[in-house]
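Repro:
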Amino acid sequence: MTWDFHHADADRPAAVAVIAEVGVNHDGDPRKAARLIHAAADAGADAVKFQLFRPDRLLSAEARLAAYQDGRAEDAATLLEHLTLTADELRGLRDTADAAGLAFLVTPFSPADVDDLAAVGVDAVKIASPDAVNPPLLDAAAALGRPVLVSTGTCDLDELDHAADVARATGGALLHCVSAYPTPEDDAALGGIAALRDRFPGVPVGYSDHTAALDTGALAVAAGACVLEKHLTHDRAAAGPDHAASVEPGGLAAYTAAARRAAAMLGPIVKACSDAERDVRGVSRQSVCLVANRPAGHRLTPHDLTVKRPGTGVPARQRDACVGRRLARDVAGNRPLRPDDFDPPAA
């Protein structure tokens, strides 16, 4: 697959790319992972995303569980040990995704993980929010020669310059993100999309969505996102750490459909008369008209002129410019003036 955001970019999010974030919702089982790939394809997603990590590479002796992970394992290492996939398993899943027509993304958590990704053959690399401020990992990911997408949860704008440079240089993106699982709707902070676009012009911006709502993606598209990421699970009630902040396949289908509809309704970021408006424009705009019949040679005064529908003659905004001009022919009142009704302007 070629990852190109479906030709969406920072200035024209006329289409939206949807990433189904499987993450660790496979529960360490490649067969579940494969089923989720097919579910993502059936739901209309463009890509699937997994994670590649080894607990011994990621966790120090002082690593601890986040609040939303409490009760799911006795410590962070135990939690993650049961949620890993090897590079070989990911390579098989990449083939499954390719056959399903999906781009294949993976999140590494250390430069050593990036080395393993070279053998997997990913279409793009996704950097998790905690590593948006991790230059060694960002630079290692960029060296793969694939687009690098960077989530920005917990980050302030002034921390993201290097991440933005990597995204720009690799043809990737920045993803606005709120790192709360799930994110309360009042904390979705979709205004951050515009903040990123303003601060980093030319860098595509998306939204990594941790809300439970199915319309947040559509709202993010309306706010300017050209790529969305949404967690996908086989069962929101399952025991793993991310299932509760995910959607099931039917939810992803509804989410994707709403996002596509929003992108189609948004269209290009321009303000111009569309083809759909031209009939109404001609009928409802007003033109300059004579208040009564006037003969050829008559020099027009303000008292000769009014404006009325339709907008098929001299535009109403040119009324004052008609004052002082001579008529080239007899002109009836109560009809729009046309450019050829005038002699050349008087000297």
